[in-house]
Amino acid sequence: MIFIHREPQSVRSMLVERVFRRVQVSRSPDAPPPRFIVRQYTKSLLSPEPLRSVRVRLDVRAFRIEQSRVYVLLPRTEACGRCVLYLHGGSYVATFTRQHWNFLAKIAEKTKSVVIAPDYPLAPGHRWSDAYRMLFALWKRMEEFLPCTATALMGDSAGGGLALGFVQALRDAHLTMPASVIMLSPWLDVTLENPQIKALSSVDPFLNVEALRGAGKAWAGRSNPRRMEISPIYGHFEGLPPMSLFIGTKDLLLADCRRFRELCAVTGAQLDYYEYEGMLHVWMLLPIRESEHAVAQIVGILATQAQCVDVGAVVEFSREDER
Fold first, then answer.
1. Which CATH architecture has domain 2-23+56-317?
2. Helix, strand, or coil here: 156?
3. pTM of the shown model
């Protein structure tokens, strides 16, 4: 299924885009910052732990696995319905942002889902292999307590690419597969060699190609950047669960998302593709009307999955221990 959103861009969306362009979020990291910027934009949004407002709305638990922190968000209801494993974006070098936590709280409340959000190892201190080691350990622990076959694997930007790489790794290891994969503005190829990216970079107010390439090299380390685990578009998509992908037309990652759509059509992989005209990178996390449209569609996707979660099992799963 291909869904193209062509409604006129909302006023708030245009204002957000204008702000991004004014503060030159996508500028080269070597360029001098504009004089009116008081603090670096991205760093001001980072929030490695759930916000206080989220803790008021949800029951928040945490534990460590492979030296990485894993957060578990539970709706404050008598029974939870579904389970989501969420991998955050940040170019593989940055942790959660405030927008991530607000978005995850919204998903948890609207779908009555338990959301598992690992703060996986990041570059430059770590490489892709460290993150996969941690995710395999987390998945094994989930299999002990939770129905992984009914779990949705979701991620945005770098986390969306990591989700696609991880589900292929699960398949190749003959391990339990999730019920579905949902990718939000995913980064599918860290080489950024798609020739269409150059034209898209001129309309993208958020992402910078050279900064992304540097982050991708740090994430890959000495490994081939075309490894499936690093750039999952170079993998193969047979035997994967149903997938959904959301992308905007003012996002330089659109080039590889369209390429991925074509590859899925050729190989017969099940992909529902959602393209929003005029939207920038990870718009679904922003406080704009178009985000509400996307969230409603994501909620609809999750609603098709069986309710499967026992709260007692979630409590045991999220208990801090010596394992």
1. 3-Layer(aba) Sandwich (3.40)
2. strand
3. 0.92
